[in-house]
Design brief:
It is a single chain. By secondary structure, this protein is an alpha+beta fold. The chain has a single domain, classed as Pnp Oxidase, Chain A (Roll). The protein has three helices and four strands. A four-stranded antiparallel beta sheet has the order 1-4-3-2. It is globular, with a radius of gyration of 15 Å.
Length: 92
């Protein structure tokens, strides 16, 4: 699940091509530990309630310390949700 602003370029891009790639850097000191995930995605609209509760359990402190100050402020800004389904992963 990825949350995004509704007008963000990634939302428009996914509408035209559902294939995406995520690159995660696990070791910024050496540049190693990179994980590349190829996936398909779709915009699903609002965050499902059970997912929102799990997201808050993990990120609520960051949300409250950020410019949004409240979970409601955060979800008002990042109200588009994308579901990402991994197809292939590579690590090096």
């Amino acid at each position: 699940m990825v949350l995004s602003q509704p007008g963000a370029p990634k939302i428009r891009s996914v509408a035209g091509n559902a294939k995406v790639s995520l690159n995660l850097d696990g070791d910024t000191a050496t540049g190693g530990g990179v994980l590349t995930i190829e996936a398909t995605t779709q915009v699903i609209g609002d965050v499902p309630g059970d997912r929102w509760r799990a997201y808050l359990a993990k990120y609520e402190r960051r949300i409250r310390n950020g410019p949004w100050r409240t979970p409601d402020g955060f979800i008002a800004t990042f109200s588009s949700t994308m579901r990402i389904v991994p197809v292939r992963a590579r690590a090096w």
